[in-house]
Structure formats: C-alpha cells, structure tokens
Amino acid sequence: MDKDKQNSEVNNEEMKEQHPKTEHGAPTDEPPTPQVEDMSKDIRMGNAKVPRFLVVTYCLLAIWAFGYALMAVPLNQVAEVAADGETIFSQSCFGCHNVTDEFKVGPGMQDVGLKYSEEELQKILLNGIGTMPSLPNLGLNTEQIKAVKEYILTL
Amino acid sequence: METQTSSDTYRPTKIFFYSSLVWLVIGMIYGLILAFKFIWPNFLVWGPLQVILQFGRIRPIHTNMLLFGWLTMANIGALFYVIPKLCRNQLSFPKMATFLGYFWNFIIVVGSIALTMGYTTVTEYGEWPLWIDILVVIGVAMLAMICFSTIANRNEKQLYVSLWYFMGSLIWLPGLYIIGNLPYKLLSGVPQFLIFWFYGHNVIGLWFTTVGVGLIYYLLPYLTKNPLYSHRLSLIGFWTIATFYVWNGPHHLQNGPIPLWLMKAGIIPSVLLIIPVWAVLANVFGTMKGKWHAVAHNTPLKFLVTGAIFYLITCLQGPFQSLQGPSSIVKFTDWVPGHAHLPVFGAFSYVAFSVMYYVLPKIVYHNIYSNRLMETHFWLSTIGLLLFTFSTWTAGVFEGFAWIEGAQYGLQFVEMLTAMQPFFWIRTVGGTLMFVAQIFFIINLYKTIQLGKKSQNTNESSA
User: Fold this and answer.
1) Which residues of chain B have pLDDT under 70?
2) Which residues cross the membrane (chain B) (predicted)?
3) What is the Cβ-side half-sphere exposure of residue B463, based on CA atoms within 13 angstroms?
4) CA B21 to each of CA B353, B443, B444: distance values in angstroms, whole numbers, following the listed order
5) B364-417 pLDDT, tens per residue?
6) Do A46 and B260 touch (CB under 8 A)?
7) What share of chain B is helix, strand, coil (3-state, %, to 5)?
8) Contacts across the A-B interface (CB distance below 8 Å)
9) Is A47 helix (H, G, I), strand (E, B) or coil?
10) C-beta separation of B327 from B255 below 8 A
11) In chain B, positions 320-359, which contact chain A (CB-CB < 8 Å)?
C-alpha cells in the first residue's frame, strides 16, 4: 500500500514537471487555475463554403425524395411458399401412403381423422412414428405441415 | 469535505459525472447478463433471481439505466460545464443544479426498482411507470430552466453553434418525453405504436444526437487547435436535423399495418438525414485538416474522431434500414441491437468519454492519471464494440433471410436460433471487452480525482 502511495506521488510530480511540455494533449496543456477560465475566446470559426460533393449529394437526395414519394409501391416481403396440402402430400407422402384405406409401406390415409385426434396427428407429423420420418426432417416448414394435416383430414 | 466543496463552481458537473459512471457499470452488468442468457438461457435462473433477472425485466433496466443513467447524466454534466464556458458566466441556480443531480439519481433508482418488480408501460426506452415519467419531466424542466437562464444571462454576444444544438435539445426533450409516455394510457393499437416509435427514435435523435453533436463542435476546436471549419455547414446541419428527425418514427413500422403514405413519410426524411449527418462529418473532417497526426497521441481526440466516424456509419445504416426491402429482412432480427449500440455506445458514449477526459482535469485540477489506461480504454472499447456489432449484424442477416423462407416459427425457428450460437458467443466476448474497458476508464478517473484532492489539500495547507 505504502509503496503504491509513494509511486503515485512520484507519478504526480513527474506529471507536474512534464506539464508545460506536453504536446497535443489539450486536456493537459492548460495550467489548472481555480477560476472560471475564459474559454470561448479560443473557439474560432471558419467560414468555408459548402463542399461541392455535398451540394451534389443534397441535389441527388432531393430528386430521389420526389421520385420515391411518387413511385414507391408496397412490398410483399414474405416469399410465397407452396402450402398446398395435396401437392405436398403427393410429393412427400404418397411414396408410402395411399389416399384410400389400402396399406402401402404405411397405412392408407382414408378416415385417418377417425383413428387419431388432430393433436395426435400433429404429434406424429412433427415427430414421425415407427419408421416414418418427421415432416420437418423432410424439409417441410410449419405452414406446409399444417397444410398437409388439413389435407389428410379431408380424406 | 462537504464544506470544502460547497463553494465549488463545478459541483453539479461533478455529481452528474460521478453518478453517471456508477450507472455505466451497473447498466453494463445488466447488459452482460442479457448476453449470457443468449448463450445459456438458464443463466442465473436460481431462486428469486429467476424472477428478478428475467430477460423481459432486465432488458429495459439495461436500456434505461444506460440511456438515462449513464449517457443522459454524462450529457447533463457536460452541459453544466460547457454552457457557462461558452457564455462566459457562471451556471444559474447552482443549488438547483446540485439538487437535480441527486433527484436524477433518485429517478434512476426508483425506475430500476419498478422495472425489477415488473411494472412497465412497454414503451421502448420509456418503460418506467407514469408517476416516474412525471418526475422525469419535472427534472427536465429544471434542467431547461437552469440552462436557458444561464444562456440568457451570458456575457458573450455570439451564440456558438454548440449552444444552438443544446437549446434545441432542451426544447425537444420535454416535448418528446411527454408525448411519448402518454399514449400507453390514451391510445391503443397501431396509433399507440406510432407514437411509441416517435418517442423511441427521437429520444436518440433529438436528445443524445443533438447534445452529442453540440459537444463535438465544442471539443473539436480545442482538441485540434484549429478553427471550426465552416459555420455555414454547422447551421445547415442544425436546421435539417431539426426538420427531418421528428419524422423518423414510422420507419420502425415499415411493411407493417400502416398506410403507404405514412411509410413514405417515414422513409423519405430518414434518408434525407444524410444531409445533416454528412454536414457534421464534413465539418469534423474539415476541422481536422492538418491535425490528423494528433489523433495518434491524443486519446480524447481519438475518442472524439472515432465517435464521429461511428456516427457516420450508424447514419449510413439508418437510411438503408428504413427502406422497405432492407427493413423486411433486418426487422426484428439481431441486426437491430447491433445498430442500436453503434450510436449510443459507439458514437455518443465516445463523445462523452472524450468530454470527461477533457473536462475532468479542469474541474479537479489534476491531469488524467494515466495515458496508458486511456489508450487501453479506447482499444478495448473499440474492439469490443466491433465484435459486438459485426456479430449481431451477421446473425441478423442470416435470421432475416431464414424467416423470409418460412423459419419464423415452429421447429425451424428453434433450429435457426441454435445455429446462431457462435454469433451469440462473439457478441458476449465483445460485450465483456466493452465492460472491462469501462473498468479501466473508471479506475483512471478515480485515481485522477484522488490525486486532485490530495494536491489541492497540500496547496491549501501550505498556503
């Protein structure tokens, strides 16, 4: 502790000595005086003209602003996804499932709504069952899974 | 000690500066907890902490504490120092200014307690309950009275451009705060959120930005010892920011349930903000002419110039994000916190650091304790901020495109979040560096203050 104190005192004195010599460091180059320093005299203001590239930028922005105000149209930012249950079924499910009650690799889909509640069906579609892979694993998103579920419930 | 400081002209500035440092540390600790929760969602979920440190509660505590505790208090401290200097007089109502320092701390404390207990108005950056908002408005009114009275009693004929900015900010802030914090009672639905965003964006643009730019214009001529490049440019900047900024709210509801004309009324002024921003930057670069070598040795100047450059980057991003296309991708993603930290930490906290390094030696009558600590503060902050922002921007772009392709919900959303894990790590590392930098900052200032006190005591005893 004592050593630290000494060090800081030494530091302190060193800095005092350096004080008038300090270059660049504006905070250190003015002698501390306990009065309110009269500082605003130091601020000088130039009166340079507005640079040409700024004038050009301002004009371009003004033109753009009018153009945008007149011509912009709303944007549909969500990409259209194929959420047609029947199409997805024929692409992703038909390999194993018939739309009738005939067994293929898996059971037929006719009257599947009687066999399972909607909630159970949702679980099977999301997690798979037996050897059936889950639909998210087949690369289907939530919208598409919902469409498939709605479609097979109509069978 | 109290009797010694009671005659101190700079007492209000000191109270504001010292308290702002405390809020800086506490607020950043909250930020770090948030960052860790991105990596381990169960971080600190233990006993009562899982309620007190819930993400939804500490996120507004983090933002409010740093916006109103750290940056606002640092700004007010700077105003109380700079305005009398530019007016060649003393601060009016010094006792009220001192009281305001304690009062403002009280507001931050009760505001944070209220948020911790779960009371919120869901206005972004204005989450404090209504009764606290009333205290804030009273505080801001006191602040405006002190500053305007000082300016009215000035001994300097000319109003330097910084004073224009300060006066503008002090007129806009109370208006903004009142308008922004009422609609949660008075309005509902889309109009409510339009006003929320009017407030949320303008509290940055018409308080932190305008005070910060005013401080840049004040410090730059001193630190470079050059005259300010162009008075005309600074006035163009002032009047265009005053004209265009208030329109910015609707761009936060871009592609949302608002009419097209309102979107356009939000986008066009957002893009036109390039005018004031480039005017400021042209002025900064013009003033720097021939003095760039000084940046290498002068850390306060380094902070100031880097802050100005971060301001430029923020304000290139801003107009870009406000356009419909980019907005449809980056909206709601991690891009946004990256963009939000750039002006608040990068641009205007850097200006505040510069102000403190410049002003503190003058008010405690002692040089800054260590240049090396200042440099460490600068580099850790800058590296930390760059890691933080670039990780969030990259994550945000990935997230935005994934959502457009249908991963907004369900399993794919979770998958996408898991995939963002590396970016959350980088973000946390960046945040930690930023936090450690501030510890160096505070140690440095604390040492300076202690040395100042010691040398003053020895002076007095020898006299």
Assistant:
1) 1-7, 460-463
2) 21-40, 60-82, 102-122, 128-151, 163-184, 196-220, 229-247, 267-288, 300-320, 340-360, 380-404, 424-446
3) 6
4) 10, 10, 12
5) 988 999 999 999 999 999 999 999 999 999 999 999 999 888 777 777 888 888
6) no
7) 80, 0, 15
8) 166
9) strand
10) yes
11) 324-325, 328-329, 357-358
Residues A86-103, mean pLDDT to the nearest whole number = 85
Pick from A40, A57, A142: CB nearest B409: A142
| Sign of the torsion angle spanned by Cα atoms B187, B192, B195, B196 | positive
Q: Give the Cα separation of B453 and B14 in Å (integer).
A: 13
Q: What is the DSSP letter of B245?
A: G
Beta-carbon separation of A77 and B404 below 8 A: yes
Q: Is B77 on the interface with A (CB under 8 A)?
A: no
This prediction has a pTM of 0.82
CA-to-CA dists, residue B172 to B78, B134, B347, angstroms? 18, 16, 20
Give me chain B's average pLDDT, please. 91
- Report all structural domains of chain A as residue ranges with CATH numbers, in order of start: 85-153 (1.10.760.10)
Out of A8, A48, A75, name the one closest to residue B451 (CB): A8
Q: Which of A24, A57, A126 sits opposite B294 (nearest CB)?
A: A24
pLDDT above 80: residue A11: no
Residue B7 pLDDT: 61
Domain boundaries, chain B: 7-452
CB B358 within 8 A of CB B8: no
Window 35-74 of B, Cβ < 8 Å to A:
none
On whether any CB of chain A is under 8 Å from the CB of B85, the answer is: yes
How many beta carbons lie within 10 A of that of residue B113, not counting itself?
12
pLDDT band at A142 (very low <50, low <70, confident <90, very high): confident
Closest chain A residue to B362, measured at CA: A32
Q: At what angle do helices B209-224 and B274-288 cross, to 10 degrees?
A: 10
Q: Coil, strand or helix: which one is B230?
A: strand
The pLDDT assigned to A32 comes to 36
CA angle B457, B374, A40 (to 5 degrees): 70
Q: Indicate which of B367, B409, B444 best probes the interface with A, i.e. most A CBs within 10 Å of its own CB.
A: B367
Residue A60 banded pLDDT, cuts 50, 70, 90: very high
What confidence tens digit (pLDDT) does each residue in B405-453 have? 877 777 788 888 899 999 999 999 999 999 999 999 999 999 999 998 8
Does the structural domain B7-452 have CATH classification 3.10.129.10?
A: no
Would you place residue A79 in the very low, low, confident or very high pLDDT band (cuts 50, 70, 90)? low
